[in-house]
Every structure is written in structure tokens, then in C-alpha cells.
Design a protein that fits this description.
By secondary structure, the chain is α+β, with helices and mostly antiparallel strands. 38% of the residues lie in helices and 22% in strands. The protein contains 8 helices and 12 strands. It has a 6-stranded mixed β-sheet with strand order 1-7-6-9-4-2.
Length: 267
């Protein structure tokens, strides 16, 4: 795994420094694709967004920062990001180029990667997710990444379908010699269907961002008991409902600090 360790700061501090991005994902266009090019190294930024994210470094070097670790990525490396997970990044070399795909879970629906649901790759803790581990996989990831970048640039007929198929190829390549870690629980049973079951709670969090949403309300919105909801939410999102709600609230506060003239006290 391309990583170096660092001292962990509090997640609340991380999220408070994050910029919240709304990529306007819709049922009609459930994916936001981007090819980014940075002619020179960039300042460190912390982001938070609703969509699930897959990225490939096509050229140069990129750092991905998390409260637990820093990933130093080079051409052919891939990163996986679940919803609302705070993360920092910076282009760490000249002429760094990256492919970025941010999407709703429905984009991949109930697809399987062999015996694994695709969502299980994202639910594992950062350091235990599948990473590029050898030159053969690096070459394969780089090839798929460049093909996807061409689809995004050309936007020929069927290009969105091509993105879906290419992403599945990439995720399958990453998952082929990977098993869910024991400490993640039974994430092998995860599915986009489970994600859709907890989405009413996510919608409640978004609606209540200036305030708080109680777990009892979230469970009722999803039509579940509190205990069932607590288990399913943690399995699906990789974190507790309370921590997930805190991320969203703090990200919204940080967004308002950056985009309005309101005082800290008012926010």
C-alpha cells in the first residue's frame, strides 16, 4: 500500500476545515466525471462530498490525506472514497494528471465483483481498502484510467455507459486478490440495496444540517428499529450514524464560513 503514517488529528477538526462540494448528482446524471491537470504542485485542501469517489493518478504524484494516514500516490495508483468521508489532497509534483469519478450508488446498482458486492471495497477502513500492489495491476489500472479519461474528453455516443463498464473493470481488478478485513464486520453482504435503505436517514441529515437529527428519527425514516438501523448504517457507511451526522453538520458550517459573511457565532 502506498502510504506513510502521520499523527492523527481529531476528525471534528478535519471536517471543520473541509470544503463541502455539491456535485449535483441526479438520477438522470448520477456521475460527475473529471480529468484534472495541475501544471505545478498545489496547496493542501480538505474536501467532503456526498458522492462515492474513485480516482486514478494518470501522471505525476498526488497525496491523499486522512486523519489516520497519508497516501503518496503515483501514476497507476487508485483511491476509493465512501460518502462523506473527510479527506485532504494535493498535487505533489509538476504536471500531475488525475481521473476523478464521483457517483451515486445507483450508478453501479447491485453489481458484483466476483463474490463481493462493489460497495464492500469502500466500506473497509482506509488502510485496509484494496490498493495497487504490483506492477501488473498498476499497468492495468493506468490503462483503464486513460481509456476512461478519453471517454470523458470525447463524450461520444454511449460514453456514460462506457464509464460504468470501465469503473467495474477497475474495481474488479482491485478486488481480485483482496478480501474484506475481519475488523470491518460482514461487509461482504453489503449492497447498493442496503445503501438505498439508509438513504432516508442521509436525506434527513442533509435537511437538518444546521441542527441535529436524532437516531430515533433516522431509524423511523428508514422504517427500522433503532438497533437494526444502527447495525445496517454502520455496515453500509463504514461509520456510526452519529459520526456521519457530525461530518455533515461540520462540513455545512465550514461551507457557510467560506461562502457567506456570517460570523462564527451566527453560524
Amino acid at each position: 500500500m502506498p502510504t506513510k503514517t502521520r499523527a492523527a488529528s481529531s476528525q471534528a477538526d478535519w471536517v471543520l476545515r473541509a470544503t463541502w462540494h455539491d456535485y449535483q448528482l441526479t438520477p438522470e446524471m448520477p456521475i460527475y466525471p473529471l480529468v484534472s491537470v495541475h501544471p505545478r504542485p498545489t496547496p493542501f485542501e480538505i474536501d467532503l462530498h456526498e458522492g462515492i469517489e474513485v480516482g486514478v493518478v494518470l501522471r505525476g504524484k498526488q497525496e491523499r490525506h486522512y486523519p489516520e494516514c497519508v497516501l503518496e500516490l503515483s501514476a497507476g495508483d487508485v483511491w476509493l472514497q465512501p460518502m462523506w468521508e473527510p479527506h485532504g489532497w494535493r498535487a505533489a509534483a509538476r504536471d500531475t494528471e488525475s481521473l476523478l469519478l464521483i457517483f451515486r450508488a445507483e450508478f453501479l446498482a447491485e453489481e458484483k465483483l466476483g463474490d463481493l458486492p462493489w460497495l464492500s471495497l469502500f466500506a473497509a477502513p482506509v488502510q485496509l481498502r484494496p490498493w495497487v500492489r504490483d506492477d501488473e495491476l498498476r499497468s492495468q489500472a493506468l490503462l483503464i484510467g486513460r481509456e476512461l479519461a478519453q471517454e470523458i474528453t470525447r463524450k461520444e455516443r454511449g460514453w456514460v455507459a462506457a464509464l460504468r463498464l470501465g469503473m467495474l473493470r477497475l474495481l474488479f481488478a482491485l478486488s481480485r486478490h483482496w478480501s474484506p478485513p475481519a475488523e470491518s464486520g460482514d461487509i461482504s453482504r453489503l449492497s447498493a440495496g442496503n445503501l438505498s435503505r439508509v438513504m432516508p436517514a442521509v436525506a434527513l441529515i442533509q435537511e437538518r444540517r444546521p441542527g441535529s437529527a436524532r437516531i430515533e428519527e433516522a431509524a423511523a425514516a428508514c422504517g427500522m428499529s433503532r438497533s437494526r438501523f444502527t447495525t445496517l448504517f454502520r455496515q453500509t457507511m463504514g461509520t456510526s450514524f452519529g459520526q456521519f451526522a457530525l461530518r455533515a453538520r461540520l462540513a455545512y458550517a465550514a461551507h457557510r464560513l467560506l461562502t457567506t459573511d456570517l460570523t462564527v457565532e451566527a453560524i
